[in-house]
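Why should sequence recovery work at all? Because a backbone constrains its sequence more than one might expect. Tight turns favour small or flexible residues, buried strands favour hydrophobic ones, and helices have their own preferences. The token representation captures these environments compactly. In the example below, the structure is given first.
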């Protein structure tokens, strides 16, 4: 699961880190990069708690938005990833979602995306074909959170979507207003 903390526009909140925290983070990053490089060179697939068999799918999130990328998926398979949006404010905020993508032609255009917001379906259809307009997602309570689940599937009758081809990618921007 990936988490994002909302920030109000015009009020940047930059964390202050001590030199020991920076050193520790730097050492951790170097160890992580060495491990990732070793695994990549060895050909061992990385598996996380939300990695599904037969799926090459990643969800990365940051303050500017979330990127969903699919590189492979077997026919009849599905994979899910979640992102949690946290509201650190002492008052509720209104949340909106904007997709930036084009419908994918991967697997003959059969790749299906389902987006759920707090267990309510907000989109289900072709990957990348959600309207690229601001969509209201409702209120996030003060110091509360809101979870989005992205599920990508490929029908049994579709051609497999295999690694090595063009990835299917969509980005999502989160907007909040008081």
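From this structural description, the recovered sequence reads:
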């Amino acid at each position: 699961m990936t988490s994002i903390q909302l920030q109000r526009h015009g009020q940047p909140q930059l964390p202050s880190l001590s030199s020991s925290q920076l050193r520790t983070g730097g050492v951790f990053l170097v160890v992580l990069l060495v491990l990732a490089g070793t695994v990549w060179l060895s050909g061992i697939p990385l598996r996380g708690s939300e990695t599904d068999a037969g799926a090459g799918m990643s969800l990365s999130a940051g303050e500017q938005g979330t990127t969903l990328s699919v590189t492979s998926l077997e026919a009849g398979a599905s994979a899910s990833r979640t992102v949690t949006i946290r509201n650190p404010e002492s008052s509720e905020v209104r949340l909106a979602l904007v997709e930036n993508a084009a419908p994918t032609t991967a697997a003959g255009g059969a790749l299906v995306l389902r987006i759920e917001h707090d267990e309510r379906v907000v989109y289900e259809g072709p990957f990348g074909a959600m309207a690229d307009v601001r969509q209201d997602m409702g209120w996030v309570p003060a110091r509360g959170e809101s979870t989005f689940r992205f599920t990508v599937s490929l029908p049994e009758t579709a051609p497999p979507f295999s690694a090595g081809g063009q990835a299917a990618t969509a980005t999502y921007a989160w907007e909040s207003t008081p």
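A few observations help interpret the result. The chain has one domain: 2-7+52-177.
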